[in-house]
Each structure stands twice: as C-alpha cells, then as structure tokens.
Design brief:
The chain has 4 helices and 16 strands. By secondary structure, the chain is mainly beta. The radius of gyration is 21 Å and the shape is elongated. The model is unreliable at about 190-200 and about 210-215 (pLDDT under 50).
Length: about 220
C-alpha cells in the first residue's frame, strides 16, 4: 500500500497554552509513537491533514510523516490512530500517529465496500450490512486499503460471512469466520401496529459485535 506524504515538525512545548497557540496559526498538535519506540511530539498543518483525510474517504491508508528537524530519521511510515475534534466547531484539535515497520505484521481494521445490486433485493428482499470493517493481519506492504464484497448473486435469506472473503496470500483475517457481513432479509410484514419477526439470519447477526473505526492498529509481537 502506497503511503501519502504529510509534512510535520518537532514540537518542543506541551500543554494547553502552546497547543492553543498552534491551533490559532492553523496547526494541529500531534504525537507519533509505536511499539518500543519513544513518543515524538509534532505539529502539522491542519489543512494538509484534512486534505488527506478527505482523500482517504474512510479507507485504511498509510501516512509518511516527513519530519522537519529529525535529521536522518526524518521519514516515518505511520497510520492515523486517533483524531480529536472540537465538538462544536468540528475542527481537528489533536492527532495521534502510530509508527509501523514494513518488516513486521500489522493488525488493522480495513473498511468493507459493498458492490453490486443483489438479486434478492430485486425480488423484494432488503439488504442489511452488519459489518463495516474487518480486522486484517498482514505485512504493511500487503495490507489492502479496502475489501470489496460483491452481493450481486445474494438471494433472499442468504448471507455473506467473514469466512467467505477471498484475500491475497499473506493476508489473514482476525475476525471470527462466522460473523455476518451482509445479508438479504425478508422484509417485515406489518399487521396492524405490530411487525412480524425479522428473518432468523438478521437476529443471529444482531448478536455479533460490529467493529467500528480503523484506528485500532497495532503491530504483532
């Protein structure tokens, strides 16, 4: 997976006061850390970060931090682990980056893209997606940005599970294989004010926890 470049600078001061001054200049306080690595305080241009976030469109992506003032260690491959925003203005106020090594496996939540128009929907069923991400383990160079799930042949009361995903060699799925990703359920029949029970597959999938977000990255020991 190709990394998107983002310029950063070493941040020498911490605390609310210095952070507030950085934000007033259109900059975002940030931290870079990783397994066994010392944390590095940074600041980045807010507009540059937002541009990358919008370009990614929720996909799993690597960011190459080009750090001014870091000498020969100026470039660090990372993932955006956490993004803090102001609840009122929605502006980015802090970013956490997790440094990764290209020779060490990484576990990451990768988004699922549903493709096609299911036959079951055309016949009156209702498409329901229960998982938006799937947890993947792979070397960073093999990590997919997203996983495509084609639902074209999905009939009513049929389900695609995690175990049905076809991935490249060297890419492993961490999530339980019996977890439901997407199904075409029979539409509820309304009688009076009460609705008939949903399809059994929907009830089963509802019990399964949904993985949300792609920031839970970690390197495997």
């Amino acid at each position: 997976m190709e990394a998107i470049e983002l310029k950063a600078s070493i941040r020498k001061e911490s605390g609310k006061g210095p952070a507030r001054r950085l934000r007033a200049e259109g900059l975002v306080p940030a931290v870079l850390y990783g397994s066994g690595a010392e944390s590095t305080m940074l600041y980045i241009n807010a507009a540059d970060l937002i541009k990358i976030i919008r370009a990614e469109k929720g996909e799993a992506g690597f960011i190459k931090l080009v750090i001014d003032g870091a000498g020969k260690n100026a470039e660090k491959i990372s993932v955006l682990k956490e993004l803090q925003t102001n609840t009122i203005t929605k502006k980015v106020i802090h970013a956490d980056f997790y440094e990764i090594r290209m020779d060490k496996k990484l576990t990451l939540d990768v988004p699922i893209h549903v493709l096609g128009s299911a036959i079951g929907v055309e016949k009156g069923g209702e498409l329901k997606q229960f998982k938006r991400d799937v947890k993947i383990s792979a070397l960073p160079g093999l990590m997919p940005r997203h996983i495509d799930v084609d639902v074209t042949d999905l009939m009513i009361d049929s389900t695609i599970h995690v175990r049905d995903l076809k991935l490249a060699e060297g890419v492993e799925i961490v999530d339980a294989g019996n977890a439901s990703i997407v199904t075409v359920a029979t539409k509820r029949a309304v009688v009076g004010e009460e609705a008939a029970p949903a399809a059994a597959v929907e009830e089963e999938a509802a019990k399964e926890p949904e993985v949300v977000g792609k920031k839970g990255a970690k390197e495997e020991e």
